[in-house]
Amino acid sequence: MDINKLKAFVAVCNTGSYTKVAKSFGYTHAGISYMIKSLEDEVGFSLLEKKGTSRIPTANARKILPDILNVLDSMERLEHSIALGRSSMAAGLNIAAIESASIKWIPLTISRFSAEHPDVPVNVFTGDPFQINGWLRDDDADVGLTVRSWTDPDYSWTPLIQDRFCGLLPKSDPHQHSVSVQDFEDKYIFIPNPYGNRDITNLLDKYDISYQVPNDNTISMMSVNTNVAVGRGYSISTGLMIDSNRVVAEIPELQPKILPIEPETYREIGLSRKKNAGRSPLVDDFIRCLKQVIQEYPIKPIELEASDSEDEK
Fold this sequence. Notes:
Elements: H1 3-15, H2 18-25, H3 29-43, E1 48-51, E2 54-57, H4 59-89, E3 93-97, H5 99-104, H6 106-116, E4 122-126, H7 129-137, E5 143-147, E6 155-169, E7 179-180, E8 189-190, H8 199-206, H9 221-229, E9 234-238, H10 239-244, E10 257-262, E11 266-274, H11 281-296, H12 302-311
Parallel strand pairs: 3-4, 3-5, 7-10, 8-9
Antiparallel strand pairs: 1-2, 5-11, 6-9, 6-10, 6-11
């Protein structure tokens, strides 16, 4: 439902005049009349009636008017929040990053960068690769730490690290050293953030794997881990995601078995920027700090996770 139609309807209710509303909205009288008629077609009943020379809301319209006002009030507050967000993004150095990288590497990188540039604020915006594409496109972010396969091909790309896929299995699963992609055939697959995290579904589709997604699919990686651990289904992750989303060690029953997937398959993590973005010494310094942090805190080998799983038996 077009928000402008709702605004026009409320304005006519307040003024009683199509002409006055048309003038304030910058439309013609016919344009406002068309908007109201279109809105009436959508709701299925008349919204305005004539009383003398004025237009007033019908009985049915008066019933829904409070809800319409609530919607408009919510939209106004949302637009205000968005404006504040864009204002904050305009200041300092703006970094966009996928969640797992934001957890593992970004805080340490900011700490080192801020030691060199204490007066430069760093804003971090965490999202999926598609959101990061949009932030870069709208110049809301200076650089994106993201996944290459979902990055806009028109952006420049700097590879940083290969992030291997691995399987999350119930403790009762018999696999011990590795798991094949084909072993996920016809399994229930928990997928964290299914709309933004398409690396997992892309991997399964690449090998033509049929699978089911539980109705209670969750965007929480920790919830995915615990559901898999107790035997409700399976999932797929990467080394970086596991490093950044470990279940509390005090409850080993809620930690799934983690095994490398064969054949070896990776996603590439790197830096994305608009090709026409100018050189920035601040961005260069941040990238230098980031590369140092990644080198000092690399992704743990999946094979170590496999050994841990065997030791628990």
